[in-house]
Amino acid sequence: MNDILLVKTKLTEQELSEYWGIKRTTLQKWRSLGRGPVYIKIGGHVIYPRETIINFERERLFHGSGNRIDATDEISKNLFDKYNVPISQN
After folding, report:
1. Which of 23, 31, 41, 72 gives a 20 to 30 Å CA spacing to 51?
2. According to the 3-state scheme, what is the secondary structure of the chain?
3. How many domains does one find in the chain?
């Protein structure tokens, strides 16, 4: 499986929507509502840094029971260590 986040440090709106399998309009709606990963907007172009994507995903890990998985949990480390992105201190 080709993991675009191992190759690129920033994704466009189109690339992120394809990576997550969601519509671009979902990302657009999240931005208008102040949700979703942090992004950069330059000259009307939206760019998502890899770090913000990884941290957004880390914050949304759940066990089958619906309990959140802490970003420092071993499961989280195993999933995200390959990206070499520090855990967000939000």
Report:
1. 23
2. CCCHHHHCCEEEHHHHHHHHCCCHHHHHHHHHHCCCCCCEEECCEEEEEHHHHHHHHHCCCECCCCCECCCCCHHHHHHHHHHCCCCCCC
3. 1
